[in-house]
Design goal:
two-stranded antiparallel ribbon, f41 fragment of flagellin, N-terminal domain, rod-shaped
Length: about 270
């Protein structure tokens, strides 16, 4: 054994400590490299993360547009229902006017027909006041527009004709009944064209919804694939650095033990 005061002991001890210190600094550098893994990954892949964020925004925007277009479809379905109800009422009014053309009717019968005729006209007027999402379902309001990426299409107006003046049409006489028949026939033709407008609106909206659905599906697939690839890459990087860190710590522990044993052997 060497005496702690021996020059040889001092030299060997200093050499051992310097070697140990160099090794510890080397291990510290290795450990430092494992810390900013996620930061480096985000910095190195900032372009992909930016694209991923933009992709998510596009998906949300497309879903909002799809929801708005679905509102157009729902409104069209309601318009069709209300138009059909109006058509039935106008057809009944036409029947009453035709029956009122019979010169053999007495005054009581005509009065009863006029009462029903007026009630039907009032029912149609009430239909025109119904609203959906803040807009009247059957109205002559200004034309609306639906705006989509790279396209804008106009929603055709759906205007339910109504009798503003209850005194303008009646079935109280043969002459008035004949005039009512002519007016109501024109109204029924107008309702048919309104139904065509509804069909056009719904068709445009449904086609656009289908396009948006395909766009959303493709974007969601791309986002999911990108997320999976990034997650696998990050997990692989973390695992690789963890293995390096664990190995370095094991070597450091082993080196410290060797240094301690060497010092003890010299004493």
């Amino acid at each position: 054994m060497l005496s702690p005061t021996s020059p040889v002991f001092s030299t060997l001890s200093n050499l051992s400590m310097r070697a140990m210190n160099r090794f510890e600094r080397s291990v510290e550098k290795t450990l430092d490299k494992t810390q900013p893994v996620s930061t480096n990954s985000g910095r190195e892949n900032s372009g992909q993360y930016l694209y991923s964020s933009r992709l998510q925004n596009d998906i949300r925007h497309a879903k909002i547009l799809g929801s708005n277009l679905q509102g157009v479809v729902s409104q069209g379905q309601m318009q069709e229902g209300y138009l059909q109800t109006a058509i039935v009422k106008y057809q009944r009014m036409s029947v009453l006017a035709t029956e009122a053309s019979n010169p053999m009717l007495n005054g009581l019968e005509r009065a009863s027909m006029q009462l029903e005729f007026d009630q039907l006209r009032e029912d149609v007027h009430q239909l025109r006041q119904e609203s959906f999402n803040g807009h009247k379902i059957l109205t002559d309001e200004e034309q609306q527009e639906a705006t989509l990426p790279n396209e804008t299409f106009a929603l055709r107006n759906v205007n339910l004709p109504t009798f503003a003046d209850s005194s303008t049409l009646s079935v109280e006489s043969i002459e008035n009944a004949a005039s009512a028949i002519s007016t109501i026939d024109g109204t029924l033709q107008n309702l048919s064209s309104q139904r065509a407008n509804i069909g056009s609106n719904r068709a445009q909206a449904e086609i656009s919804i289908e396009r948006l659905n395909r766009k959303v599906a493709a974007a969601e697939f791309s986002f999911a694939r990108m997320s999976d690839e990034e997650m696998i890459k990050d997990l692989t990087t973390v695992a690789r650095h963890k293995l390096s860190s664990d190995a370095s710590m094991a070597l450091l522990t082993q080196a410290r033990g060797i240094n301690r044993n060497l010092t003890e052997s010299l004493l």
